[in-house]
Amino acid sequence: MIDIQNVTLAYADRVILRDISLELSERRIAIIGANGSGKSSFARLLNGLVMPTKGDVLVDGLNTRTHGKDVRQKVGFVFQNPDNQIVFPVVEEDLAFGMKNLKFSKEDIAQKTTDILSRYNMLDMREHPAHLLSGGQKQLLAISGVLVMEPTYVVLDEPTTLLDLRNKRRITHAINALEQTVILASHDLDLLTDFDRVIVFDDGRIAIDDVPSVAIPHYIKLMS
Amino acid sequence: MLDLYSPGHSPIHKLSPGVKILAMMVGGTGLFLVENLGIVAVALAAVIALYKIAGLSATQVWNQIRPVLWILIFFLGLQWWLAGASVAVFVVLRLATLLLLAGLVTLTTRASDMIESLTSGLRFLRPLGVNPAKVGLAISLALRFIPVLAQITTEVREAQKARGMEHSIVAVAMPVAIRMLKMADDISDAIDARGYRP
């Protein structure tokens, strides 16, 4: 479970999140809100990319302030733009990066690379230059790079925003098939209908926290 | 090294990158020590034979020379004018051999293996405060983001062209610089998120 305790986040005088307290324990949780509502900052708090100005974030009891490395292994993070997440020039080299950081053996790295690329039908791209992949393939590579680190939670920050319809469907399918707990920040309401819980952010506060059938209409009303 | 690597299982592919780099350095130095056109011609033939052993095609040999063809032609003309035909041919053959040798190393060595070798090779700089792992990551990032930077520059140039400002260097350079700085922040977060600790 991820426990958010009285979290406030501010950059200089600008308050992004205001005294948020939440327990995240469902398998599929969505975070929605207008641009600047604080949802991306909230997502970044969950694996310690951003530290709260006040309050604490606990992941399975581990505080992001004091157990950053353990928290990052537990909470994988997929960014909006895969181009900014893929850090090595070749597909298999990029997949190996996170595993090397976690000191996986060479044999383990090779096996997990084969497994994850087979899962997404990308095995023949193992030695491909990453910059030549399509947008959807890049996002799948970014997701793969996180999954090989065997996280318990996967946080995705608007993973379909830059994709066309076909690739959006491909990524949606990949997200739905994840065994891990998924926390998804998105504008894409079609993605969220099967989720267990939707949290709507508005001006750094939680406007509503409920099942999709209640929260999504509330959000649409809020936006109009 | 971006997409030059040509996957294969030849004996040259299997050699350690350190050995290949060392062989390239020794071969390159050797080429500058000889003054005989015949030896350079033999060396060129030997390097081309190594391409064959590595399972590389004639097109891949040509692709190493093609980008610098005009420079080679320029040197050929200049040397011919300054020192005569045989010296001109000697200089150009030597340069072509060196280029092909360097190309052979990049075509048969993955970027990650090259960087790993470099990282090991830089260990002796640790007492001076140099972190070889950081140097390795910096080189990887540079290789990875050269095409991204090229893409961003193209996008910005097209956007400015649409506004009639294609000749303004500032109008292109400023947005590219801002996007790169923003991207650098995101990349730094992405590296952190994947558990990197140098």
Automatic annotation (TrEMBL), chain A:
<comment type="similarity">
    <text>Belongs to the ABC transporter superfamily.</text>
</comment>
<dbReference type="InterPro" id="IPR050095">
    <property type="entry name" value="ECF_ABC_transporter_ATP-bd"/>
</dbReference>
<dbReference type="GO" id="GO:0005524">
    <property type="term" value="F:ATP binding"/>
</dbReference>
<dbReference type="InterPro" id="IPR003593">
    <property type="entry name" value="AAA+_ATPase"/>
</dbReference>
<dbReference type="InterPro" id="IPR015856">
    <property type="entry name" value="ABC_transpr_CbiO/EcfA_su"/>
</dbReference>
<dbReference type="InterPro" id="IPR027417">
    <property type="entry name" value="P-loop_NTPase"/>
</dbReference>
<dbReference type="InterPro" id="IPR003439">
    <property type="entry name" value="ABC_transporter-like_ATP-bd"/>
</dbReference>
<dbReference type="GO" id="GO:0016887">
    <property type="term" value="F:ATP hydrolysis activity"/>
</dbReference>
<feature type="domain" description="ABC transporter">
    <location>
        <begin position="2"/>
        <end position="220"/>
    </location>
</feature>
<dbReference type="Pfam" id="PF00005">
    <property type="entry name" value="ABC_tran"/>
</dbReference>
<dbReference type="GO" id="GO:0043190">
    <property type="term" value="C:ATP-binding cassette (ABC) transporter complex"/>
</dbReference>
<protein>
    <submittedName>
        <fullName>ATP-binding cassette domain-containing protein</fullName>
    </submittedName>
</protein>
<dbReference type="InterPro" id="IPR017871">
    <property type="entry name" value="ABC_transporter-like_CS"/>
</dbReference>
<dbReference type="GO" id="GO:0042626">
    <property type="term" value="F:ATPase-coupled transmembrane transporter activity"/>
</dbReference>
<keyword id="KW-0547">Nucleotide-binding</keyword>
<keyword id="KW-0067">ATP-binding</keyword>
<keyword id="KW-0813">Transport</keyword>
From TrEMBL, chain B:
<keyword id="KW-0812">Transmembrane</keyword>
<keyword id="KW-1133">Transmembrane helix</keyword>
<feature type="transmembrane region" description="Helical">
    <location>
        <begin position="20"/>
        <end position="53"/>
    </location>
</feature>
<keyword id="KW-0472">Membrane</keyword>
<dbReference type="GO" id="GO:0005886">
    <property type="term" value="C:plasma membrane"/>
</dbReference>
<dbReference type="Pfam" id="PF02361">
    <property type="entry name" value="CbiQ"/>
</dbReference>
<protein>
    <submittedName>
        <fullName>Energy-coupling factor transporter transmembrane protein EcfT</fullName>
    </submittedName>
</protein>
<feature type="transmembrane region" description="Helical">
    <location>
        <begin position="65"/>
        <end position="82"/>
    </location>
</feature>
<comment type="similarity">
    <text>Belongs to the CbiQ family.</text>
</comment>
<dbReference type="InterPro" id="IPR003339">
    <property type="entry name" value="ABC/ECF_trnsptr_transmembrane"/>
</dbReference>
